[in-house]
Specification:
Layout lengths: L1 H45 L3 E2 L2 E4 L5 E10 L13 E12 L8 E19 L2 E2 L2 H6 L13 E18 L4 E15 L5 E10 L5 E9 L4 E12 L4 H4 L7 E15 L2 E21 L2 E17 L4 E10 L2 E6 L5 H6 L4 H8 L6 H13 L6 E18 L6 E16 L5 E10 L3 E9 L2 E15 L4 H8 L3 E15 L2 E15 L13 H8 L5 E5 L2 E4 L2 E4 L2 H13 L4 H18 E4 L8 H16 L4 E8 L1 H22 L8 H9 L5 H11 L7 H9 L1 H25 L6 E3 L3 E2 L7 E8 L4 H14 L8 H10 L1
Parallel strand pairs: 5-7, 15-17, 16-17, 28-29, 28-30
Antiparallel strand pairs: 1-3, 2-3, 3-4, 4-5, 5-6, 7-8, 8-9, 9-10, 10-11, 11-12, 12-13, 13-14, 14-15, 14-16, 17-18, 18-19, 19-20, 20-21, 21-22, 22-23, 23-24, 23-25, 25-26, 27-31, 28-31
Helix pairs in contact: 10-17, 12-15, 12-16, 14-15
Length: 788
C-alpha cells in the first residue's frame, strides 16, 4: 500500500513538474519566438527595423515586458541624413493584455509603462519622420470599414523620458528631459482623456508640470500648467530665421489655467499669472536693442470671444529700448531687413513653421478685440525704464535718453468716464519731461494731453545744428509745454516754446555741413531779454493738423523794427554775459589746444589780477567732454591715415596745410568710406564711429586724448609761469562729463579777492535781471545756472 502511494506521489510530482517545465519552456519559447518574429518581419509590416534586447511574454496572464527596445528611422529618411538611426527607444516597456477580452473583439491594455523612453521627431517643411507609419496603418481605400476590434488603453505611465525635435529648414534643434506622464487612459467608447505631466528643459534651466483634459470628439480642452524659470533660449533658433543677426534670451514663469477648443483660437478663457524675466533681444549678448527685467501679467479672466479682458495688474520692470539711425537703414531694419522684409519672406512660405511668428499671430488674435471689449486693469505700471536714441547719420553722433522713465495708471476700466495715465522721465544728459494723459476708454479719439519738457540744453542738438547750419551753440536752454484737447479726432492745442539765452559760437567749416546764417536768423527771432518765446497753436484733424505760425511771423517782424531801438541795451547784456562767462570759464573747442587772441587776453587778466592781489589764488577744475573729444580724435586720425596713404605711402607727418585739409575732409566722403570698409572688413560695424575706432584702435585714441589735455594745461600755465605766479594756480584732476554748453572747459574758482571787473559785471547783470524784459525768466535762469 505504501509502495503504491509512493508511486502515485512520484507520478503526480512528475506530471506537475512536466507541466511546469512545459509551461516554462513554452513561455521561454513564445518569448523567443515573439522576439524572432518581430525582428524578422518588422520592415515588412512597419517599414522600420526593430531591435529588442530581451522579451518576456506570459501567454497565461497577458503580461508583456521588453527591455532595450529600439525602433529605427525608415530608409526614406536617408535624404534627411538620419537613416539607420534610432527613431524611438525605451529601456523598459511593460503592459498587461487582457486575453479573455479578445474574444469580445476588444484589445484591452492596462498598466502600460515606458521607462526611460527616448524619441526624435524630425520635420522637413511639411514632412515628418513618422508620416510613413501613419500612411502604413491608414486604410488605403476611402470608406473602408474600420477595425472590428475596440481598443482600450489604461494606466499609461511614462517615466524619465527624453524627446527631441529637429526642424530641418530653419533649422531648429531642441529637447526636453525627465519627462513624466501619467494618465488613467481611455476606453474606446469614451470621449475624453486626462493626464498629468512634468518635464525639464533639455538645453537650459527650467521645469514645467501640470494636467490636461482633452475631448477627442469635439476638440475641447482644459489645461492647468505651472512653469518655473523655463529657459526660452531655444527660441533664438526661430529668431535666426527672420533676422540677419541677433541674440535672444528670456525665462518664463507661469501658473495658468486655460479652457478652450483647438479649432477656435479666440474661444479660449485664461486665468492665472504669466511672468517673463531677463528678456534680451539685440545685436549680441553685450548690445541689447530691447530688454526688460520682468513682465508680469496677473489675469483674472481673458476671453477674446466673449470680449472680456480683466487683469489684476500689468507690470513691466526696467524696460530698455534702443533705436539707432545709420547712414543706411536703422538698427531694427538692419536686423529684420528693410521694412521687415525677412519677416515677410518667412510668412510668405507656407512650408516654414516659425514658432515666434505663430506666437505673434496668436497674440494678435487674443488682443484684436481689446478696445472693443469690457477691459479692466487694476494696476498698470512701467518702472525705471530707459529709452535711448542715437543718430549716426550726421557728421557726429547725436544721443539722448529718457532715463529713467515711469508710466503709471490706476483702474484702467472701460466703465470709467476717464482714464488717467502719467509719464515722467529724466532726460539725459540734462532735462526732464512729464506728460499727463486723460482719455476716454470707450473712444480712442477722445483724449487730453498736458506735457512739459524742461531744462534741455540747446547744445545737445549741436550735431544737427552743425550739419544743417555750420553753427553750433554753446549756450541756451529749451523749455516746451502744451495742452492738447482732442474730441472725435479734432485737435485743438496750445504749445509754448521758450529758449533762454541762446548763444551761437564760431562756424565749423566742413564739407559735410550746409551753411545757414544762424547768427543773423537768431538776431531776428531772439527777443530783447535774449530769449526766444513763441506760442504755436495747432488745430485741425489729427491726420491733417494745421500749424498756426502767425505769432512767430509777427514777432520776427516786430523784432526787425523794435530791436534797433534796443541795440544799446542788448549790447550791454551781451558784454556783461561775456565778461562773467570769461571770468569763470575757459572754453575749448574740439581738439583745440592753442588759445585764441581773446582767450590770451582773458588769461593775461588773471595773471595781472594775481600780481596785484598777492593773497589771492586760483583753482582750476578741468571739465572734459571725453566722449565727444575722442569722437573727433578718431575721425581725424582715421582721415589722417587715409590722407597720408593716398598722398604718399611712406609719408608719416602732416604739414599745417595738409592738417587743415584733413580737418575739413568729410567723414562721409565716398572714397574715405570705401577705404575704411576695406581696412575694417566687418559687416557688423554699422557706423563710421565704430569703423574708425576699429581701424585706429583705443590705444592711439586714448594717447591723443591724454596729449590734448596735457597741451591745454601747459598752454594755460605758461602765462602764469612767465610771471612767476604759477604756485598760486592749482589744477585739479579732470572730471569727465557731458558739459551743459557742449564743450570741454576749465572752470575757474577765485580764492580770496574777486576781480573788480567781475564784481561790477555781477552787480550790473543782477540789476538787468530784475527789470524787464529779463526779469520774467529770473527763476529759469537760476535753475540753469545750478545745472551748469
Amino acid at each position: 500500500m505504501k509502495t503504491a502511494n509512493a508511486k502515485l506521489k512520484r507520478t503526480f510530482r512528475i506530471v506537475i513538474s512536466s507541466i511546469l517545465i512545459v509551461i516554462l519552456v513554452f513561455t521561454i519559447l513564445i518569448s523567443s519566438i515573439a522576439k524572432f518574429l518581430i525582428e524578422k518581419y518588422d520592415e515588412q509590416y512597419t517599414g522600420r527595423q526593430i531591435k529588442m534586447g530581451w522579451v518576456y511574454v506570459n501567454p497565461f496572464t497577458g503580461h508583456i515586458h521588453i527591455r532595450n527596445l529600439e525602433i529605427y528611422e525608415s530608409e526614406s529618411l536617408s535624404e534627411l541624413g538620419k537613416s539607420n538611426s534610432v527613431f524611438f527607444s525605451v529601456k523598459e516597456l511593460s503592459a498587461n493584455l487582457a486575453l479573455h477580452k479578445l474574444f469580445s473583439k476588444t484589445i484591452h491594455i492596462s498598466k502600460l509603462t515606458l521607462d526611460q523612453p527616448k524619441g526624435t521627431i524630425i520635420q522637413n517643411e511639411k514632412d515628418f519622420n513618422f508620416d510613413d507609419l501613419i500612411k502604413k496603418f491608414t486604410p488605403k481605400k476611402a470608406g473602408m470599414a474600420s477595425s472590428p476590434f475596440h481598443l482600450n488603453i489604461l494606466g499609461i505611465k511614462i517615466k524619465n523620458g527624453e524627446f527631441h525635435y529637429w526642424e530641418k529648414v530653419i533649422p531648429v534643434k531642441y529637447f526636453i528631459k525627465d519627462v513624466n506622464f501619467e494618465s488613467a487612459g481611455k476606453y474606446w467608447n469614451a470621449d475624453t482623456i486626462a493626464a498629468k505631466f512634468s518635464f525639464l528643459s533639455g538645453t537650459g534651466i527650467g521645469s514645467a508640470k501640470g494636467n490636461f483634459t482633452i475631448n477627442i470628439k469635439n476638440q475641447d480642452y482644459r489645461v492647468a500648467a505651472i512653469v518655473h524659470k523655463f529657459d526660452l533660449k531655444f527660441m533664438e533658433q526661430y529668431l535666426k530665421d527672420i533676422v540677419n543677426y541677433g541674440n535672444f534670451g528670456a525665462n518664463l514663469d507661469a501658473d495658468m489655467k486655460s479652457i478652450g477648443n483647438f479649432n477656435d483660437a479666440e474661444g479660449v478663457t485664461n486665468t492665472g499669472r504669466l511672468e517673463i524675466s531677463d528678456f534680451h533681444l539685440g545685436k549680441n549678448p553685450e548690445d541689447d536693442y530691447l530688454s526688460f527685467d520682468k513682465l508680469v501679467l496677473a489675469i483674472k479672466e481673458m476671453s477674446p470671444k466673449n470680449h472680456i479682458y480683466i487683469y489684476d495688474s500689468v507690470l513691466l520692470g526696467h524696460p530698455y529700448f534702443k533705436y539707432e539711425r545709420y547712414d543706411y537703414l536703422d538698427n531694427l531694419q538692419r536686423m529684420f531687413g528693410k521694412n521687415g522684409a525677412n519677416i515677410s519672406v518667412a510668412k510668405a512660405d507656407p512650408a516654414r513653421f516659425n514658432l515666434i511668428l505663430k506666437i505673434a499671430d496668436y497674440i494678435k488674435v487674443l488682443a484684436k478685440n481689446f478696445f472693443k471689449s469690457d477691459y479692466e486693469i487694476n494696476k498698470l505700471a512701467i518702472h525705471a525704464g530707459i529709452l535711448e536714441f542715437n543718430d549716426y547719420s550726421l557728421t557726429e553722433k547725436f544721443s539722448i535718453e529718457a532715463n529713467p522713465f515711469y508710466i503709471n495708471a490706476d483702474s484702467v476700466n472701460r466703465e470709467r468716464k476717464r482714464v488717467e495715465v502719467s509719464f515722467k522721465s529724466v532726460t539725459k544728459p540734462y532735462g526732464n519731461i512729464s506728460i499727463a494723459l486723460s482719455t476716454n476708454p470707450k473712444d480712442s479719439s477722445d483724449f487730453d494731453i498736458q506735457y512739459h519738457l524742461r531744462s534741455l540744453p540747446v547744445s545737445l542738438f549741436n550735431p544737427y545744428l552743425i550739419a544743417y547750419t555750420s553753427f553750433p551753440l554753446d549756450g541756451g536752454t529749451i523749455e516746451l509745454n502744451g495742452i492738447w484737447k482732442v474730441r472725435n479726432g479734432i485737435l485743438k492745442s496750445d504749445n509754448h516754446l521758450l529758449v533762454i539765452d541762446p548763444c551761437v559760437t564760431r562756424r565749423i567749416k566742413n564739407k559735410d555741413t550746409k551753411w545757414i546764417p544762424s547768427p543773423l536768423i537768431l538776431s531776428f527771432i531772439r527777443e530783447g531779454g535774449n530769449i526766444i518765446d513763441y506760442e504755436i497753436p495747432i488745430t485741425g484733424n489729427l491726420k491733417d493738423p494745421k500749424f498756426h505760425l502767425q505769432d512767430l511771423v509777427f514777432d520776427i517782424l516786430g523784432n526787425i523794427f523794435v530791436k534797433p531801438a534796443t541795440i544799446p541795451y542788448r549790447a550791454q547784456v551781451k558784454f556783461l554775459e561775456n565778461e562773467i562767462e570769461k571770468s569763470l570759464t575757459l572754453q575749448w573747442e574740439m581738439r583745440q589746444s592753442s588759445q585764441t587772441p581773446n582767450q590770451e587776453k582773458f588769461v593775461n587778466k588773471m595773471v595781472d589780477f594775481l600780481i596785484k592781489n598777492p593773497e589771492a589764488s586760483i583753482v582750476v577744475y578741468p571739465i572734459q567732454y571725453s566722449e565727444k573729444e575722442k569722437e573727433y580724435i578718431k575721425f581725424f586720425e582715421a582721415k589722417k591715415k587715409y590722407f597720408l596713404l593716398s598722398k604718399d605711402k611712406n609719408a608719416q607727418f602732416l604739414s599745417e596745410e595738409d592738417s587743415l585739409k584733413v580737418d575739413k575732409m568729410s567723414i562721409k566722403d565716398s572714397s574715405f568710406v570705401h577705404f575704411l570698409n576695406k581696412q575694417v572688413d566687418d559687416t557688423m560695424l554699422f557706423t563710421i564711429q565704430e569703423k574708425c575706432y576699429s581701424y585706429i584702435g583705443s590705444s592711439l585714441i586714448n594717447t591723443r586724448f591724454i596729449e590734448l589735455n596735457k597741451e591745454r594745461e601747459d598752454v594755460f600755465m605758461a602765462y602764469f609761469k612767465k610771471k612767476n605766479v604759477e604756485s598760486r594756480v592749482k589744477i585739479h584732476t579732470a572730471e569727465s562729463k557731458i558739459p551743459y554748453n557742449g564743450f570741454s572747459f576749465f572752470k575757474i574758482v577765485y580764492k580770496g579777492e574777486l576781480p573788480e571787473s567781475l564784481i561790477k559785471a555781477y552787480r550790473k547783470m543782477n540789476e538787468l535781471n530784475n527789470i524787464a524784459p529779463r526779469n520774467r525768466f529770473k527763476k529759469e535762469r537760476k535753475k540753469n545756472e545750478s545745472m551748469i
